Amino acid sequence: MTYSVEPDAGPGSGLPGVPAGLIAVTGSTGKLGSRIARRLAESGVRQRLVVRDPQRAPELPGAEVARAAYGEQAALLDALDEVDTLLMLSATESADRVSLHKATVDAAVAAGVRRIVYTSFVGASPAATFTFARDHWHTEQHIRGTGVDFTFLRDNLYLDFVPGFVGEDGVLRGPAGDGSVAAVARDDVAEVAARVLVSREHSGMTYDLTGPSAFTLAEAAALLGRTLGRPVRYEAETLDEAYRSRECFGAPSWEVAGWVTSYAAIASGELSGVSSAVEDLTGRPPISLAEYLART
């Protein structure tokens, strides 16, 4: 599904393209949140950057800074005071990510936030192959349960990650089989988010954000090789091989499972769907893998 509207979505308010009130942005010190905050600032939007470390907050015109971390109720109540719309970027993967998300949502509602724009993951469901996508589903369900207005941006894997899949030996390994992935650029997600945040037209909507087409990891390896000017190849692993090859990093089991199942979700076809949402919302086609590699 490209995007959907919930039957019980509330009526829109305000003029299209005009923010209804103060926007709070989380994660502005990160790669996605900083892109979104910068776009809002360039458009003259008043925003509050909610960060764990104010010293790391970007200096942007029209932006104020408040200190709070996910799950810190008292700090969040202060940081979100008078906020109309909260951009809630998903927290860094952790064993307690869902509980941190839930606590943050509850604090936002208690502070009087009227709408939450949440960065979720394509195919989020309790039975998703990609284990971290299950976290997103539980977070979405909790947001729905509060009765607050919402918009969910379900991102596919980021194009930015693809070059990092390649090992030092020039091999891209993973249990993705012959499956394909419609990976999306962070720049496209940021542009969509910035537009969604300033309009009530997206009340109750869920958008799948993808690239213009799906590609296999073998195709990605070939394109990377041509771009880098050196051999790059894809080697399909079994699930057992993938777990064994990654357990040597000493990461906790839940994290290893996330790494491995991201590839398994490609193999299952769960990440292959292509959406028109990026072009529909920004007026331009999404960035392809070839375009991304040419730029970077």
From TrEMBL:
Superkingdom: Bacteria
Cited InterPro entries: NAD(P)-bd_dom, NAD(P)-bd_dom_sf, NmrA-type_oxidoreductase
CDD domains, alphabetized: TMR_SDR_a
Domain (NAD(P)-binding) ranges: 27-197
Protein name in the entry: SDR family oxidoreductase
